[in-house]
Fold:
Amino acid sequence: MKAVILAAGKGTRMRELTQEIPKPMLKVQGRPILEHIVEGVKSAGITEIFIVTGWKAEVVESYFGDGSRWGVSIHYGRQIVQDGTGKAPEIAQEFVGSDDFLLTYGDILVKPETYAAMSKRFGEGDFSGLLTVTGSQDVTKGGLIFFDDQFCLRKLVEKPSHEQITQLTSDGWIKPRQPVWYNAGIYIFKPVLYEFTARLEKSPRGEYELTDALTGMTDAGHQIAGLEIAGRWVDVRDPEVLASLEDEQA
Structure:
């Protein structure tokens, strides 16, 4: 298995912190967020890594080089046009080849053992993909996920409005006293994903959405496994979250 890390965005919510460096290079407990991810991925036995860069790409590329300092091999590709998460993985398509690959955003922190748990779950069935979820998040800021009784993907609603949530409750998708699952933004895919990213059209937000490719895969009969992340999951979305991670160490 290989790994693809999406690290092209500027991270505008970080304000002046990302004027000179990309968000994944902001430091948490003395090391860039991206370094924590690279080390976590390696701990799961994945040593072939592709980083999609963009804003201040040279900062990432000069820091990690070929990856040998971390005992991995790192390759790069630049996303020149920031047109959404649906097209970013295509930059790594040649690198992926015929291999399964772990896909993660470059600003999400989890315990290293999460990556190994994902690999284990992915190997338990004939799955074309795996997505991770977490509870206790505001689903209007991300993806709302529904699973079947085998904990495989049934339905995904990206950034649902409060009206949509009311309707989903009325229709029986959201049930009292049952978890509401939030897309945690770390995946495993077979290369078949690219058949579906190639067909994407821009969403109402004017971007190509990775979640639309997942919906397409599910509609076509592909099984996508779910996995709840155990323990730590942090979307380092703004300066306040970043500061809280430093306090965690204190």
Q: What stands out?
A: The chain has eight helices and 13 strands. The mean pLDDT is 90. The first strand starts at residue 2 and ends at 7. The chain has one domain: 2-249.
